[in-house]
Amino acid sequence: MPKRLPRSRTLKGDPKIAYYDSGGGVAGEAPVLLLHGATLRSEDWENVFPRLATRYRVVAYDARGHGKSGRAAGYALDDLAGDALRVLREVVRAPAILIGHSLGGATALVVAAREAALVRGLVLVDPWLSLYRDTRWHREPFTRLRAALDHREDPRAFARAVAALPLAERGPRGERTVGEVRGFYSPERLGMYYRDVDPAFLDQILTPDPAGAAELASAPAAVRAPALILAAGTDSALAPGEAERVAAALPDAKVVRFPGVGHRIHGLRPEPFLEAIEPFLRRARSG
Prior knowledge:
Elements: E1 9-11, E2 17-21, E3 32-35, H1 49-52, E4 58-61, H2 77-92, E5 96-101, H3 103-114, E6 119-125, H4 139-148, H5 155-163, H6 187-194, H7 199-205, H8 210-222, E7 227-232, H9 242-249, E8 253-258, H10 265-268, H11 270-286
Parallel strand pairs: 3-4, 3-5, 5-6, 6-7, 7-8
Antiparallel strand pairs: 1-2, 2-4
């Protein structure tokens, strides 16, 4: 698998946070911070990181319990937002544009509400908001993945368990399981993502987090930055009509829909994804 990210670095603390920093960036441009979704890792941005890095300083990091970052006792939204703020303050060190996918989108929204001065703009990529930790969304895939992690010590058994994982919705060619998928989200890539997920994260991800859910519900009213919401056409983490409701609650927001495209918009359709966010980034530049 070709490397498309710079060498990882480590932000010390509890837990340690692995991050990737492109450096550089055109003078005057706000840096970009990428926040991945649940059970993924920074490599999930490989389709778009290099393109963004031609103009912006881009930083991506592995959330606690994912990738190369440290394991932790707690995985509540409060913990995830605290880690994102650590990265902004200690690594980025400048007001940034936050691009967050799924659970990363929820984290980015909370961060923007807590620390308006650190956020120049928000791109929420099919964010997990009202359905956060709701058992109606992805319960079976999360539960089956948790069982698959018990086979990690046997690479062949783990590969078979990952290949057998059900897709939340049938793929564009009728795929029903991860093993049938080709392209960016191949079984090999997803196996690389999943093998470093802390089982404790999956033990907690479908249990209630009342404080996190409440903060998500109140966050739009406290956000001051402009926002762009990208809504998937299939397998979406957004409830029906939610993208428009959240956009109306934000001070300055726009919704872009991707008909027929699944939850991982940036990985599945990197070119349309970049085309959708570039006008927003230009606007943040002029602002």
